[in-house]
Fold:
Amino acid sequence: MKKYWLLFVLLFLHIEGVLAQENQLSVFTIDSCIQYAFKNSPYLKARNKEVLIAAKDVDIIKSKRFPLINASGNYFRITQNEYPYEYPSGFAGIELTQSVWKNGKITTLIENAAIGQQMAETKFLIEKNNMISTINQQYLILLKNQELELLSNKITQRIAINLESSKERYKSGIARKSDVLKAETGLSDANFTLTGYTTERKIAEHNLVKTIGADLNHEIKVINTLLDTDFTYTTWELERFYTMALKNLPELKYSDLSISWQNLLIKYEKKTNGPDLDFYAAYSYIYSPVQNNNWSGSLGLALNFTIFNGFEAKNKIAKASIRRDQFEYEKEELLQMVKLEIRQSYLELLEAKQQIENADKQRENSAENLKIANGEYQQGISSMLELLDAENADFTANQNYINALWWYQMAKAAIERKTGISKY
Structure:
């Protein structure tokens, strides 16, 4: 009996350990979130399959250069008027067809498929960059709400202390009843704000966990990197960002590949009416009692040349040319959009930097004002209302500082995405 109890206790301790490990918070950096998504995101896994499909398309086109070998056979019974009985008959044969000359059509198709593979790879890179951008945004939103939750919790604790102090002072006859009521109201407001930021933090956490492909029951904690304000980009000229975008942005590369792909399609359509030369060889055996020569074979060349197809090729060339012009215009529009978005992000970056400086100064002043208000309240010079006003002003100043840091980091991440600057 003791043996079974021991096994039960060990099993219970093991389950408790597993649950404790599952419920343990995991600390994530932006880098680890991105690497986790690259490995586990179902969305990226699905997009990567498109690259593999495009690679197989190249192999399929290349297979046209190999000979085509077909084998066939049949067996049946025949009844004819000349014979008073049924007789069996059968056929077996093999034939080979090898392309000799296709006027460069197969080569053009292979080149076109190779461009298609590059387009799939570039599109996958765009999806990865979009994933990086989304993770950056969701991580920073989670980080902002986490810091605001900590700030709200801090002021809630301070107001709770003020409430207890006002109650003691009221019992001693030093403070008024209204001070207690104002402190209770202030604590209620602080708890309301804290609850809101806690909810927003949990929602942001859920969104990030879903994006990186983790278990939705998985809880994560992010590291505060808001203070890592590298202002290097604010010293760059706009032309430098434009140059970086032209060099790195995969969307522009995809646009160029689309034009090249269409040019190859035009090249192929111009060759469609050209002659095709195929080598043909066949060998067959026929089993039939009414035939003397049961073996036969053939060997030769076949030349095919389209003389007229109702202007189909001409119209296909015209269609492909129009599509190529469309892609060129879309590239021009994309270049204009890229420059506009870079300019907007750059201006937001400069403004966010200025807001950080303003919010930091406001934070210093509010902290000093809170210190003075707290001292005056302890001395009985000021009321609880003035102390709560100072607490709220200090909270607002710190809130503005966190938002300014967050805004700068968001603007920095945006300009990196729009210029193709990425360490991944």
